[in-house]
Design goal:
The chain is an alpha+beta fold. Helices cover 21% and strands 32% of the residues. The protein has helices at 8-19, 39-46, 93-101, 129-135, 177-186, 194-204, 219-222, 238-246; strands at 22-25, 30-35, 59-65, 71-79, 83-88, 111-114, 119-125, 149-152, 155-159, 167-173, 190-192, 252-259, 268-271, 274-285, 288-296, 305-308, 311-316. The longest helix is centred in the N-terminal third of the chain and has 12 residues, at 8-19.
Length: 326
């Protein structure tokens, strides 16, 4: 459902995420633990990023694809000493457990465990999150790459907020959630609701399953080039991705769209009555109306004026995605 009529509390939290620090409870995410000796090789073969280059204490974003390179989910993986912890979208958890399990063959030493119900996930978002992380004993992570993580007091502290804003993610047993939640708020973070997270997600262009991540789109169209390794060996969907890259075959891209009024996801995007794309997400923001949508690459990019149903819009860049290899 599109988000409308933002309230003052959400506006304050969004401002904190941009200018200070906010705290979001992301414990609804699925958590899949991949363990045993072949875990890195297995994930290397099942997703777009290069897991075999990662060492314990490192991590990355990756995309799980169909055999025709259509997107299933955007996943964050953290390489631990004895396992890889995957954070997956809540509405993809059960599907991904089944999907990954079907590719474990007799000789593979891989064990999948759904740890979602016993795991809490909190994200600190904003450029002042560094000072809180330092006070919590994880200051060594400041200025390290996204995905890097350490263990402090049985808590995984990881670089990355889940958005394009700077920040950190904490992963720990669910029984400890209230303690850590209250402690971080006492250190000056502002509570960010699920609703405010969704507004930021759309403003920043983070794609979500059933909206931007569907079997209609591949990760290069989505703009998730940073999650794709073009140098590693074969993985599910690799042939299609390689062909699209080699022959410049990406026919549409995900963009932000600044709108003059509300619009419904699924609305056709047109220029002079010609269909050029589709709106995938919409929200009202503290600064007006905003959406995400796929637009045919030949139609243009930033600055393009479009019609979204009865609403006028202008195409703008969003920071979470890019349209070329970084």
């Amino acid at each position: 459902m599109p988000i409308s009529a933002i309230d003052g509390k959400d506006a304050t939290a969004i401002h904190a995420a941009r200018e200070g620090v906010s705290l979001c409870d992301r414990s609804h995410l699925g958590t899949i633990r991949v363990s045993d000796a072949d875990r890195l090789r297995f994930l290397h073969n099942q997703s777009t990023n290069d897991f075999q280059r990662l060492k314990p204490g490192e991590g990355c974003d990756t995309v799980i694809l169909t055999s025709t390179a259509r997107t299933i989910d955007l996943v964050t993986g953290y390489v631990l000493n004895d396992a890889v912890l995957l954070l997956v979208s809540a509405n993809r958890r059960e599907f991904l457990m089944q999907w990954l399990d079907r590719y474990i063959f007799f000789a593979d030493k891989v064990v999948l465990t759904d740890a979602s119900d016993e795991t809490a996930i909190l994200s600190l978002i904003g450029n002042q999150s560094h000072s809180i992380i330092e006070k919590l004993g994880a200051g060594v992570l400041i200025d390290q790459p996204d995905g890097n993580h350490i263990l402090v007091d049985d808590v995984i502290f990881a670089v990355g907020s889940g958005l394009a804003e700077p920040g950190y993610t904490l992963i720990f047993p669910i029984a400890e959630k209230q303690k850590w939640w209250e402690r971080i708020l006492e250190l000056g973070a502002v509570e960010l609701s699920d609703r405010a997270w969704e507004i930021l997600r759309i403003l920043q262009g983070r794609p979500a399953p059933d909206f931007e991540l569907t079997e209609d789109y591949n990760p290069l169209e989505v703009g998730l080039w940073q999650t794709v390794s073009f140098n590693k060996g074969c993985y599910i969907g690799q042939e299609t991705i390689a062909r699209l890259n080699t022959y410049k075959g990406v026919k549409q891209y995900l963009w932000g769209i600044r709108l003059n009024a509300a619009a419904e996801p699924g609305t056709v995007i047109t220029i002079a009555d010609e269909k050029v794309g589709k709106l995938t997400s919409y929200t009202e923001t503290p600064d007006g109306h905003f959406g995400l949508g796929y637009i045919r690459s030949k139609a243009g990019g930033v600055g393009l004026k479009v019609q979204v149903g009865a609403t006028e819009g202008e195409v703008v860049a969003v920071p979470f995605v890019s349209h070329e290899y970084p």
